Amino acid sequence: MLEILTLTPILKGLLVITIAGLTFPLAGVYLFRLNLLPMRFMLMHGAILGGAMALAFQINPFWTTIGVNLLLVLFMTRSSRILKMDLGHISMFFMVITISLAFIFIYKFNVPAKDTLALLWGNLYVLSWADVIGVSIFSLALVAFQYYFRNHLRALFFDREIAFTSGFNENLLYYVVVIVVAVTVALAMKLIGALLLDAILLLPPVVASFRARSLRGMIFGSVLWGGVFALGGFLLSVAIDIPASSAIAALACLVFIIMYLTRKK
Prior knowledge:
This protein is mostly helical. Helix content is 82%, strand content 0%. The protein has a single domain (2-259), classed as ABC transporter involved in vitamin B12 uptake, BtuC (Orthogonal Bundle), CATH 1.10.3470. It starts with a helix and ends with a helix. 41% of the residues are buried.
């Protein structure tokens, strides 16, 4: 097994998934505390639209996916403020329109649907060293953002009106948090695919919430469990020869069941 881990594609996948597992759950905490869970479905559809556009125009799907998701987030948050509608309702509208546009691109430009839908699966073993460096830089930025704005985020998660009266620009911070979530979802989709991104984005905060008694405890627990799911699932996939994303998701679900049952007792 040690020999397998020295292979370059395996090593790059191991590095990236471990880094992602230790940092991406922070964005999952943001999703929970700001009640942005419906937004992740919109971002999944946005990634499919970005992939279809990239294949149609023969450009890098990674950047188009991030670009489309950022535009969707900006339009969504702006529309929510102007129309005074819940983000969940707005995200459902954008979820429908993005998948419709994606299939228009697929049809009009004769894009193979299987190539576009491949974004739903992800692949850790085709990453370049540039991808490894990019994910590492973003992860460091995410940790720095959480540390530097930890008090502001605590106020924002507790109550937005209280955050406003605390003397900082809560509106700007809210936009930044939503953008951070959008980029994290796009990166997670590239790593393990849209169908399994919740394994490192949402399940760690859920599992951590069973025992956490504070926001700080939830954050540390999420990071810890995210690292366990990512590293443990990856090593399990190498040991028994199954897809890494499936192993990570299976391990996360098993821990969730155990933690839930022990919590009930």
